[in-house]
Specification:
The structure is a single chain. The chain is an alpha/beta fold and 220 residues long. The protein is built from nine helices and eight strands. Helix 2 (36-50) packs across helix 4 (90-100), helix 4 runs parallel beside helix 8 and helix 7 crosses helix 8 (168-184). It is globular, with a radius of gyration of 17 Å. The chain binds 2'-deoxycytidine-5'-monophosphate. 2'-deoxycytidine-5'-monophosphate binds at residues 14, 36-37, 40-41, 96-97, 100, 126-129, 178, 182.
Amino acid sequence: MNGDKLVIAIDGPAGAGKSTIAKEIAKILNLEYVDTGAMYRALTLKVINSGIAIDDIENIIKLANSTSIKFQNNKIYLDGTAVDEDIRKNIVNNNVSNIAKIKEIREIMVDMQQKMAMDSNIIMDGRDIGTVVLPNANYKFFLIASVEERARRRYLEIMEKKQEDISYEKVLEDIKKRDTIDSTRDIAPLKKAPEAHIIDSTDKSIEETVREIINIIEGR
Ligand code: DC
């Protein structure tokens, strides 16, 4: 299927813990890790910084075609500059779904992601990894958690980073909005691949969730 390579896909809604879990698994199994949400975020940041309107699809596509997005040492580089902090800002949170629903943008991103997965043992997380980007992945997981728990995690993360002043209720409302856009868009909506294992992290620690996934991969 993937030769000797190990390819793992993790999909799920915002705040389910995909990145944290995927990073841990990458460490344990010595895999490359690609956070595809960070790629859509990086492009969104560039759109915002360029002053292009979020509904100016033509210019957003032009911009995407002249954009370089790379991962190195677990950092994401947008046109050569590390943007790990900036892509987590609320202004990016609130606009990224509208960029990610553009068909041509998804084609550009999927192409980049498939190239990244070509020569390495890899774990990739996102919304359409098991369904569109890596349909032949050796293992597929669909990570879920209740919307309240996901909002709680995002809220704590924002508070920890002291990034901005926002209430839990607003974070919850924003996550619900994003869930709706991500799962109802026409192109590659958030959807579980039929063969994906559902992992519910609502009442589990990071370690417990990682263990559950590793056990499946190791066939225990
Ligand atoms: O996982 P995240 O919250 O960082 O993702 C940011 C946004 O990007 C999210 O609103 C959905 C979108 N996304 C997507 O459409 N497809 C992916 N493979 C990854 C993310």
